[in-house]
Amino acid sequence: MKMYFVAAAFVALASTSAYAQAKEDKAPAAAASAEVPAELKAYVTTHANASTPTTYNGKVLMGHRLDGDIVWSALPGFPAYRWTNLNGQQVVLEKKTNFVVGVF
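^ thats the sequence. predicted structure below, dont judge the formating
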């Protein structure tokens, strides 16, 4: 009987942590749908040719976290964000969380 309870507790904890892990890679819906300021978008799109595209093997999706060896550039006047050219797309991240907030 004791083994049954231990096994049940293990399964319950394992499924909870797996769910939490899956939720960590996505931003809250409000953050993912928030509009990037027009000045920020203008800066990124006008400087697109100045940055060398970086090959990224994963999908670049709004509201998802990007990690890995990616060189990011600062955005003048927007210290909370950074950007780069991934696979020919201009990608803007929220610096604190690494969540994608803009793809142009």
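Helices lie at 2-24, 29-33, 38-46.
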